[in-house]
Design goal:
The chain is an alpha/beta fold. It has eight helices and ten strands. The chain has one domain: P-loop containing nucleotide triphosphate hydrolases (Rossmann fold, 3-Layer(aba) Sandwich). It binds adenosine-5'-diphosphate and magnesium ion (MG).
Length: 239
Amino acid sequence: MSTMQQPNANLQPLLRARGVKRRFRLGERTLEVLHGVDLELRPGERVALMGSSGAGKSTLIQILGLLDAPDEGEVYYGEVSAWKQPVDARARLRNRSIGFVFQFFHLIPELDAVENVLLPAMISGDPDVKSRRKELRERAVQMLRDFGLGERLDHRPAQLSGGEKQRVAIARALLLDPQLVIADEPTGNLDSTTGAKVLDLLLDEQKKRNLTLLLVTHDERVAARCSRIVHMRDGRVVT
Ligand SMILES: Nc1ncnc2c1ncn2[C@@H]1O[C@H](COP(=O)(O)OP(=O)(O)O)[C@@H](O)[C@H]1O
Ligand SMILES: [Mg+2]
């Protein structure tokens, strides 16, 4: 591909995965679900990750997002091999640099919208982040207002629609100004009209903040709005 089509090709990758393998033990058997994945994400890139169910997309993004360890291979953030870092350094990297949005929202039912946005930051064990509680709370409120949830700040998830829940989850992902947002089928549990609005919000924020966005989707129309499509098949990246 020519550099003309790759506006960020001159920038150093934000993330590089090299030879990532993941196996699961199933009783006596070992099932390898990632067979050696190489992938690079550049600053500001909007990448769609596609592939049929079971291809390994969720397993891969958990490893790229530093939530699950590979059995072999490396994930570099800049020059740092993330899985070779001590656990607290890796937690800090994850907490400060990566935001997650999930298909099923993963909000805490007992907490209201503002508290849900704040929670990951506050339980991170990162003293620098914890000491910013007041400022972060104000930031959470402002973001929820910007996302059209000004009247929903003290609502719990059960009192929110699916689209509203995903807006809360997006605010949570963006609270600490990450460089990378990983979204696993973020509109997969929403009706098409609501999903389209949530996607618009996510893509607007991606552009405004020059985020790197890795977006798992089955939807060709969603993928068409990304700068690049990565296809997975049977535990491998095929493009
Ligand atoms: N914790 C696990 N234990 C055993 N097998 C798993 C586990 N997680 C995922 N798998 C298997 O790995 C394969 C890839 O799953 P997944 O990454 O969820 O695919 P996708 O997100 O592309 O649908 C599937 O065959 C799935 O059953
Ligand atoms: Mg999945």
